[in-house]
Give the backbone structure.
Amino acid sequence: MAMWIQAQQLQGDALHQMQALYGQHFPIEVRHYLAQWIESQLWDSVELDNPAEETKAKRLLDNLVAELQKKAQVQGGEDGFLLKIKLGHYASQLKSTYDRCPLELVRCIKHILQSEQRLVQEATNASSGSGSQAMDTLSQRHQQINQAFEELRLATQETENELRKLQQSQEYFIIQYQENMRIQAQLSSLSSLAPTERTQRETTLQSKRATVEAWLAREASTLQKYRLDLAEQHQKTLGLLRKQQTVILDEELIQWKRRQQLAGNGGPNEGGLDVLQSWCEKLADLIWQNRQQIRRCEHLTQQLPLPGPMVELLSKLNADITDIISALVTSTFIIEKQPPQVLKTQTKFAATVCLLVGGKLNVHMNPPQVKAVIVSEQQAKALLKNESTHSESSGEILNNNCVMEYHQATGTLSAHFRNMSLKRIKRSDRRGAESVTEEKFTVLFESQFSIGGNELVFHVKTLSLPVVVIVHGSQDNNATATVLWDNAFAEPGRVPFIVPEKVLWPQLCEALDMKYKAEMHSGRGLSDDNLVFLAQKAFSSSSNNSDDYRSMTISWAQFNRESLPGRNFTFWQWFDGVVELMKKHLKPHWNDGAILGFVNKQQAQDMLMSKPNGTFLLRFSDSEIGGITIAWPTDDYETLVWNLLPYTTKDFSIRSLADRISDLNHLLYLYPDRPKDEVFAKYYTPPLCMSKAVDGYVKPQIKQVVPEADGMLDPDGDFDLEDTMDVARHVEELLRRPMFSYTSLSSLSQYTGSTGYCDA
């Protein structure tokens, strides 16, 4: 209910925007009387694009109606009687409206709550003055846009008033012109009269005719001036419309698309489209009003032709306004939810496209169909050059046709492709060292519809972000690299899908940090020391100074085409392996600050040499993709620091990192000096109770040991083969027994688990 209390305190334009959210589709009274109940429901848990969620949405609808009926029943008194009837009516209305489409109710309420939250937040930032500079800049930009809309509204209202005056003046002119024609007819009929009477009447009529004709001449000149002035005003308004449209389409919408692209790399969510849609709808409304005014001017000119350049002027104005509305319609056909950028064949995927001005221009009255096809990079280039590529595609997408639906609550017209699947793909000839995971495609969405009673017909197209098609999961790693590089370094308005071959190292650092933070779901990203470590790896450098790398460039080949020196994997493959390992098994430990990770063997040795025995740290393996090792100091003056054989995802699927650290009693303090139980105890698996055997079996427990503790490493740090064979023989002997005793279980737990020593 807290949100509704704050929403009621909104003022001015924010209050009007909030009130505009409500209507017959969802009355504001329902929001008011059920505020607490509405805000306590888990609306976000319902996936709007998933038809299977309809049952959950239906349950929410039924509960809403029940709550409304309950609220109606408790109303009493004289005023309560009317409220009781009204709330009961709303309950029936909502039931009949959404009973067959309960997901639309959820969509409506989610939109309302998100919009209220945004309006309250904007108002809070404006009043407190504590918002960041970015928020201040955003508010100023929005304020400028709203001021420009107010200027356009006033200019359009002024031309409307002038047009009405012109129409009235022209109508009076036509009446006087008809009067002049009547006088002329009377003069022509005087020949049948007697000379005396004819002379008298002729003098009177000629005088009257001269007066009317003089007035008509003056008024014709005035009308022509009115027309020219009005045309000039329309030219100015069209200039303002163009300027405002440029700000919204070429700046605000492009920025939204850029945020959408960066969100593919883990950047902040691009945000909703409600503000952009409201701006585009205002533009559409103003453009259409001006277009209708220009059409009416054309009609007046045809009705009363006068000498002058008006026909040419109006023809140009009509062409200009048509160009403006065409640009608006074609630019606002956008992809709200992008298809996956790494697209596997024979796998279901979804996407959503919408027409931001579809509701305002009544396109939904005859809902258009949208078609999706996959095209190559070359075909995309040809499309942008307006070269004919009709019916050309580079593959076959199943379930690729969808009818656009109008959502009354939000005023959006959109098509939800829920069950598309790429059946096959046709690849082009690759260039040089380019692999299949570097080849980019795009999903083309196209549709055709008309507005204004078939006055204007539009064929609209929009391209998805670049898509890399794979046929096997093993290609995902390299495909993701292609997508990350493209999303990070693509420039607005580029030729599809050109990206720089090399970028500055700090630019790549920003992209890697964004990706890493998103995968960890944490604000703890890559520190300066982490990035220096990555730079050393990428450039095979030993410098520890971050300034040494600021002006260095890294090429795509260094990033994910050429293997690192002495390794059989690339820089990206190593980094992505770390990300996958952390994401699947070690995310909490990273967010707790327990994993240093980006430390090489020499650095680990330098850090641990001065620490007491029992101190250890966790670092990523240099030699194995997706590996992490434990390093700890020893009393051996030759070895100094041991590095356990790296753990991988396979190891952690058997036993967790916390449990493995718990098993190793010689590990006491996490670097620099934190007791290990203080850091990891909350993640330990509770010990199994030694319950009575069932069906002759007792569940064994896996426990990790390090051979060093039992003298199983020789002076060079290698396994002693005889000792290792003793372990194997002991395990084999235990396995021959028909049933484990508690003693044998305890003995076995000392030997079972991962063993190792070295990280290359």
